[in-house]
Specification:
- The chain is of the alpha+beta class and 66 residues long.
- The chain has a single domain (2-65), classed as Winged helix-like DNA-binding domain superfamily/Winged helix DNA-binding domain (Arc Repressor Mutant, subunit A), CATH 1.10.10.10.
- The chain is built from 3 helices and 3 strands, in the order αβααββ.
- A 3-stranded antiparallel β-sheet has the order 1-3-2.
- Helix 1 packs across helix 2 and helix 1 packs across helix 3 (36-48).
- The longest helix has 17 residues, at 2-18.
- It is globular.
- The termini are far apart.
- 26% of the residues are buried.
């Protein structure tokens, strides 16, 4: 799974680059990510690289690029 995380992070980054901000549900669909686990692993990757802004509420986070 970890080997795939970088690839999925790239898909998420591209989706956000094209149409940000996005909710987790919309981002999963736009990036064509299969599982929630993969999506949140990719989001964690991008957060660690300081490339992501998280807004919204705890229940309804909205993601965009820095």
């Amino acid at each position: 799974m970890f080997e795939n995380a970088g690839e999925v992070a790239g898909l998420v980054w591209n989706a956000l680059n094209e149409s940000a901000p996005l909710s987790a549900k919309d981002l999963k669909k736009a990036a064509k990510v299969k599982t929630d686990k993969e999506l949140y692993l990719a989001l964690g990757w991008l957060l660690r690289e300081d490339k992501l802004v998280v807004a919204g509420t705890e229940k309804e986070p909205v993601f965009s690029l820095k």
